[in-house]
Amino acid sequence: MVLAPGKFAEINLDMGDGSSTEVTFETTGGPLEWNVHSHDGDNVVIHAEGTGTAGKVRFAAPRAGLYSYLWKNAGAAPVRLTTRLASTAQVRVHSVEPAP
pTM of the full predicted structure? Predict the structure, then answer.
């Protein structure tokens, strides 16, 4: 997908206790800010974060729940994002934003 300046993309996953994921991503057109986060009520808990044009982000759920991989275009030009998700144990894609 192509992210316009200021826009984001997110993969929301319903993960079982102890399950893990690995997302490989690549961009064309510039770097994106990324994070893996969850919500504890109104609080956002950041589990990992960074900025880059490519990477492999591994995450193991500390407990069962909903976790999100998010990429944001903080630049001034559109950026194409390509992702690939691999998982172990109990992981289900809950939703993708923006919806394909």
Answer: 0.94
